[in-house]
Amino acid sequence: MSEVENEDVRGEAIRICQDVMPAEKNKVGDTIDVVHRLGKKQQQNDSRAMGIITLFTARFYRDAVWKVARKNAFLQSHGMRFALHISPEDIERRNQLA
């Protein structure tokens, strides 16, 4: 999602999730708690948009959005994808378990 001045990142994330899961359109907005961009604001001449973190209040909806998003035509046509964000500490812990 490209960055714009004074953007409503939470509103856009809700809209995208509603497009991904139209059957749950009325419920998805209530299950998204916190949404923010990662990192510092990009320079005007930089075309790369910073990633967005979305925190769901209900794991059920997070997992449902995640499952449907894998092969979603809307996301593919807009060059978007959902990815798991894991902290370096969690990656280290997971590697120790393997």
Features:
2 strands, two-stranded antiparallel sheet, 98 residues
Fold and architecture overview:
The protein is mostly helical and 98 residues long. 46% of the residues lie in helices and 11% in strands. The protein is built from 5 helices and 2 strands; from the N terminus they run ααββααα. The chain has helices at 9-20, 25-31, 59-69, 73-77, 88-97, and strands at residues 32-37, 52-56. Strands 1-2 form a two-stranded antiparallel sheet. Helix 1 (9-20) packs antiparallel against helix 2. The chain is globular, with a radius of gyration of 15 Å. The termini are far apart.
* Contiguous helical run count: 5
Oligomerization state of this entry?
single chain
SSE pattern? HHEEHHH
Counting DSSP E segments of at least 2 residues, the number of strands comes to 2
Distance between the termini: 34 Å
Unreliable stretches: none
Shape: globular
Portion in strands:
5-15%
Helical percent range?
40-55%
Q: What is the structural class?
A: mainly alpha
Q: Radius of gyration in whole Å, from Cα?
A: 15 Å
Largest sheet: 2 strands, antiparallel
Q: Largest beta sheet: what is the strand line-up?
A: 1-2
